[in-house]
Design a protein that fits this description.
This protein is an alpha/beta fold. The chain has 19 helices and 15 strands.
């Protein structure tokens, strides 16, 4: 349950600390005083949508801190997985809102929204005007019914949803396969032509064209290369006046000098190496020159080959690398088409099989839904009778629909508040006061079923008075015997049932401020008197005292 709420620089509140008790906690105050600020702050602690507008004007940040007492849930493993300190039966949740960021913590550890959401489902159920709207929508009714009966067919529903997820994935795969398999003959022929054209070219590598262009350059200059290398050979190793001949004479002179001075022996050795290197170069140049012929056939072959490769490059992206990439892509596409044609039949067989399973499980769920719809209908109708709607008929309608993610059933809540009226959708029939009591009936039943710690009602008494208000007060008091209940009310009868009474006051001097007080004794009597009569007088005070004495 909620032990304490602390606010700082939040909307119109400088600083506030509210300690809640078990049982019924009531919040009253004049219209527009800011009663909903407290409940909105509790909601905001668990919410992922936070506006910087909640920061009090002139302040840098707002903080909300909530202390929960945990007596029913084992959270040790959850906290350990998320690196959160286990502080026994107390859980400290905080939210810091600045102009640029929102940070949430549990026991001092930064946490994500999913973790806060999971804690909310365990500890707090907040009924707001927005939730009333949600409850009226038929698409939400199946969720309510399944939530009520989750212990009875929840595992079957989980099996169904898992299979339905697989079913959806298979259908998407089938659609892709069918699109590929339905490719036109023209598309297939075009892919085959591309593959054949590139295969026939027998491209050696993605640099083949560069290598051929280099060779073409050599062949185009064969005569000049033959002449230049031949001339170089004769200059190095010709008969008379060649470099080799000159080196021979020089070597002889150095050899003689080395015999006279041993320090020249190394020079003689180096000179000998130079001579050997020149002989190897001259040999290479002679062979190169002798073998360099003007190979017209090879020249023509290369030019034809380059013409073919250039044609392919122009068609497939400008380089041999892009040509080969196009070839791979076309081959893959053709393989997909050929594979998909075979795969369509296999996927369809799998889909048919799982569809049969889904319908089988869906029928089982549908039977259970219909059974528990009757149970829940009776419970809600009995609760509405207690809440001064004795002639009301309430029924949960279940009709068939095609396979969907939640089964094969349409679920809708129907109600008739007058004997002469037929059952109609909840949203089209109930008045404000009737809606409030329907919501209270559903919340009361579900709270007992879920064993949730804290139930919060924001003005659940809208549109009721007299005996209806008394019955609502009795129902809330009964609910508070097993759960912590926090409620904003304008009804003195409901407020008189409180175990703890909070009063919200707005003051406007130099600035607008909201303060919250806990009422006891005469102050509480005065607050109830004001609620009952609009002003405090002897009659309203006596009425307030009579409420507290019941």
């Amino acid at each position: 349950m909620i032990k304490q709420l602390r606010l700082k620089n939040y909307i119109l509140i400088d600083e506030l600390c509210a300690n809640f008790d078990c049982g019924l906690n009531v919040i009253t105050g004049e219209t527009g005083a800011g009663k909903s600020i407290l409940l909105n702050a509790i909601d905001l602690v668990f919410s992922n949508r936070v506006s910087k507008d909640v920061i009090k004007s002139g302040c840098d940040k707002a903080t909300i801190e909530l202390t929960l007492e945990n007596s029913n849930n084992n959270l040790s493993e959850l906290f350990e997985q998320n690196g959160i300190d286990d502080c026994g039966n107390l859980i400290e949740i905080s939210k810091e809102i600045t102009q640029n960021s929102v940070r949430s913590r549990i026991n001092g550890t930064l946490v994500n929204q999913e973790l806060l959401k999971s804690l909310r489902t365990l500890f707090v159920d907040i009924h707001s005007q927005h939730q009333t709207y949600t409850f009226l929508q038929p698409q939400y009714h199946i969720t309510l019914l399944d939530s009520y009966a989750k212990e009875f067919y929840g595992s079957l529903l989980l099996e169904y949803t898992n299979k339905y997820s697989i079913y959806n994935q298979l259908k998407k795969q089938l659609e892709i396969a069918q699109n590929s398999a339905n490719a036109t003959e023209t598309q297939i022929d075009f892919l085959k032509f591309q593959i054949s054209e590139i295969e026939e070219a027998q491209i050696q590598s993605n640099t083949e064209d560069i290598e051929l262009e280099s060779e073409l350059e050599i062949l185009n200059n064969a005569e000049k290369l033959k002449e230049l290398t031949g001339s170089a050979y004769w200059a190095i190793n010709g008969d008379e006046g060649s470099i080799i001949e000159s080196l021979t004479h020089i070597k002889s002179d150095i050899s003689k000098a080395a015999s006279l001075d041993s320090r020249l022996e190394d020079i003689l050795g180096d000179f000998s190496s130079v001579g050997e290197t020149l002989r190897e170069i001259s040999s290479y140049l002679r062979n190169y020159s002798q073998n360099m012929d003007n190979d017209t056939q090879r020249l023509n072959d290369i030019q034809e080959r380059l013409f073919l490769l250039d044609k392919l490059k122009r068609k497939y992206g400008g380089s041999l690398e892009s040509v080969l990439t196009s070839y791979n892509h076309a081959s893959e596409e053709l393989s997909k088409i050929e594979y998909s044609s075979k795969n369509v039949e296999e996927l369809q067989q799998k889909i048919d099989a799982i569809e049969k399973e889904l319908y089988k499980i869906g029928e089982q769920i549908s039977i259970s839904r219909k059974n528990y719809a009757q149970v829940l209908s009776v419970l809600i109708q009995d609760k509405l009778s207690f809440l001064e709607l004795p002639k009301t008929r309430f029924e949960i309608s279940i009709t068939s629909k095609p396979l969907s993610n939640d089964g094969i059933d349409n679920v809708e809540f129907l109600i008739s508040t007058n004997v002469s009226e037929d059952l109609k959708p909840l949203a089209k029939v109930a008045s404000g006061g009737e809606i409030s009591r329907v919501m209270l009936a559903i919340k009361s039943i579900f709270a007992h079923n879920d064993d949730i710690d804290t139930v919060i009602f924001d003005e659940i008494d809208t549109g009721i008075s007299g005996h209806a208000a008394q019955s609502v007060a009795d129902e809330i008091a009964q609910l508070s015997m097993h759960h912590q209940v926090i409620v904003i009310t304008h009804q003195p009868i409901i407020a008189s049932k409180a175990n703890k009474h909070f009063y919200v006051r707005k003051s406007q001097n130099d600035e607008t401020k909201v303060d919250v007080y806990v009422l006891t004794g005469e102050n509480r009597v005065k607050a109830l008197a004001e609620l009952a009569g609009g002003e405090i007088n002897n009659q309203s005070v006596e009425f307030a005292k009579s409420l507290l004495s019941r």
